[in-house]
Amino acid sequence: MPGTAARSLSIHRQGSRREWPVAVKTRIALFGPPGSGKGTQAKYLAECWELRHISTGLILRQAIAAKTSVGRKAEVYMNKGDLVPDHLVHQVVEDSLGQVGYDNFVLDGYPRRLLQAQQLDKILGERGRHLDMVLLLTLPTEIIVKRLTRRRVHKLTGEVFHLDYKPPTGIDPKLLVLRPDDRRDVVWERLRVYRAQTQPVEDWYRKRGLLIEIDADGSIDEVHERVDLALAGGSP
């Protein structure tokens, strides 16, 4: 059965260099409430650990833009702030995992429901794999609402900006849009749905000793540091 490879984790930040000889976690799930920075941290993990970043949200939005069958079905739910049904997400995840041989990946925002966690275990277990680590980003509600309602997306490139933290300098305002699921009323509904349906997933992984909670309140670099510590076996 494939195991975790041992190599040195090398971190470069603000001119400094740090190396930790650690057992590489090659199969990671990362989730948290909307606005907790899952995408940013998943990209960071993928870059540092040479993992495939699998974002179900991004894949579904691409499917919506391409007007695929899955995209048209998912769009109805996402625009209302509801979670996309399990069978649609399961299809996307299994296809994406198969493309990387079910190894060397970080799942971004998945699983979100207990059934999805059980389905993921089944997908990996049938191939002699298992998750090595589950990272949970935590953040106060008032910060989540501020982060999401002031987020803007470039219509042409898909790049995400924030009016406070990452201003879209020099870009035509007409090209910047507020995603439908970032409207204030939809954000509150997304949080309600998230908390109702994701708590069992947290409990599932906590009981199995895989869950590590990381405080996502702070700068991107500060959260990067906490992620580094978690991967190195320290306290985030």
Q: End-to-end span in angstroms?
A: 29 Å
Question: Strand order within the widest sheet?
Answer: 4-5-3-6-10
Structural class: alpha/beta
Determine the CATH topology: Rossmann fold
How does CATH name the architecture? Answer: 3-Layer(aba) Sandwich
List the helices and strands and how they pair.
Layout (H helix, E strand, L loop, with lengths): L5 E8 L2 E8 L3 E5 L6 H12 L2 E4 H10 L3 H10 L7 H14 L5 E4 L5 H12 L7 E6 L2 H9 L1 E4 L5 E3 L13 E2 L6 H24 L3 E5 L4 H12 L5
Parallel strand pairs: 3-5, 3-6, 4-5, 6-10
Antiparallel strand pairs: 1-2, 7-8, 7-9
Account of the 3D structure:
- The chain is 44% helix and 21% strand.
- The chain has 236 residues and is of the alpha/beta class.
- The protein has a single domain (6-140, 197-231), classed as P-loop containing nucleotide triphosphate hydrolases (Rossmann fold), CATH 3.40.50.300.
- It has a five-stranded parallel beta sheet with strand order 4-5-3-6-10, sandwiched between helices.
- Helix 1 crosses helix 8.
- The chain is globular, with a radius of gyration of 18 Å.
- The two termini are 29 Å apart.
